Amino acid sequence: MTYNGPVIDGHAHLYELDHAGHLDAIREAGRARSMNIVCIFDGKRVNANPEAWAAKASRPGRFYVFAGLDHSALFSGGRVDAPPLDRQVDILIAAGSDGVKLLESKPNYWLKLGLPLDGEYFRPFFARAEEAQIPLLWHVADPEEFWDPACTPRWAAEKGWGYDSSFPAKEQLYAEAFAVLERHPGLRVIFPHFLFLSADLPRASALLDRFSGIYLDLGPGVELLYNLSRDPAASRDFFLRYFRRIIYGTDCYSSMTVKEGGLRAQVIRRFLESGEEFRLPPGTDFLLGPPEDGVIHGLDLPEDTLAAIYSGNFAALAGDAPRPMNSRLAALECRRLAHQQSLLTGESESTTPAMRAALTLEEGAC
Ligand SMILES: [Zn+2]
Question: Which residue from 44, 54, 67 is spatially nearest to 16, judged by alpha carbons?
Fold first, then answer.
């Protein structure tokens, strides 16, 4: 059925400080009341938190931020100092973040650190996240075809998302994540892209039953929509049973056009609301692949189910509205990150992206 209630887009990316207005236009094209900017860690820029905080501060009520961690001590081989990961959780919350984003279990990102998520390095982080009850959006694994060179889509291989034996296996990444969940049953975790289990709903169902604090997000990974369309009746049953554990998200990113962003939202919404069979409309972004790739079969979900998926579940985890920013503390953290960026890249501190964000936050705080 057609849904006209509130929508929170639980998964989007902002790449540059100047893209905030553009991402806001994408949000509007997707008819979302608010949007969650999730921040990726990086070996040079440390993470994308500065841009996200500046965007959130400049548009109150529009953006949630799930901040990324600072692994610069590892990346620099100890040359650069960073606060311990449990302390980082407190810094991120104090600045005004709404949660933490982990990309550390995506195979190519896992390899950047080379450390198991259930190992000693991450232990204090998960313990503190559980204690503070801060929600995580944790990308674990990738679509199964990325491990099979014959099946990896060309656009994915071009991005370095084709995995040979030098990468961790999909089951290893799952095993690490589940070991963490066993150790910290109070953790609240959204696994994006349906935890890449859209082709195996019985397994997804067993995991949702086993771990009461986990949720699945609908960000495509367009394979997710194709997989769920193979047996629409079984998928619909799954959604009716677990609708309190499924979260709407588009995975839109600020370098796409507003039209592409609007189409992403439209495709997912048509899948949830209509009972129609359709293909991707022309004009969708390249990450979704061409329309010839597959047919999507809508689930025609009822209103209470849609309301939970579109906004209720995310709001229960991260709040009905984004937490207020503390622009002073956020700016302070951005200045620290500007220092890290400068040490990692050799760039002058004053021209780093983090310093630009710090100045924007300080202007707004006056
Ligand atoms: Zn994403």
Answer: 54
Cα 272 to averaged position of ligand 1 atoms, centre (Å): 20
The per-residue pLDDT for 150 is 84
Separation of 92 CA from ligand 1 center, angstroms? Answer: 19
C-alpha 251 – ligand 1 centre gap (Å): 5
Where exactly are the structural domains of the chain?
8-365
Residue 202 makes CB contacts below 8 A (sequence gap 6+) with: none
Rounded to the nearest angstrom, the distance between the alpha carbon of 11 and the centre of ligand 1 is 6
Helical residues (DSSP H) of the chain, grouped into ranges: 20-29, 49-58, 72-75, 85-95, 107-113, 123-132, 154-158, 170-183, 201-210, 223-230, 232-242, 258-273, 303-307, 313-318, 327-345, 353-365
Question: For strand 296-297 and strand 136-140, is the pairing parallel, antiparallel, or unpaired?
Answer: unpaired
More confident residue, 159 or 241: 241
- The pTM of this model reads 0.96
For residue 12, which amino acid is it? A
pLDDT in tens, 176-222: 999 999 999 999 999 999 999 999 999 999 999 999 999 999 999 88
pLDDT digits (tens, 9 = 90+) for 288-315: 888 888 999 999 999 999 999 999 999 9
- Residue showing tokens 């950047």: 112
Indicate the Cα dihedral angle 7, 10, 14, 19, nearest 10°.
Answer: 0
**Domain 8-365 grouped into CATH 1.20.1250.10:** no
DSSP state of 80: S
| Distance (Å) from CA 366 to ligand 1 centroid | 33
CA 227 / ligand 1 centre spacing (Å): 19
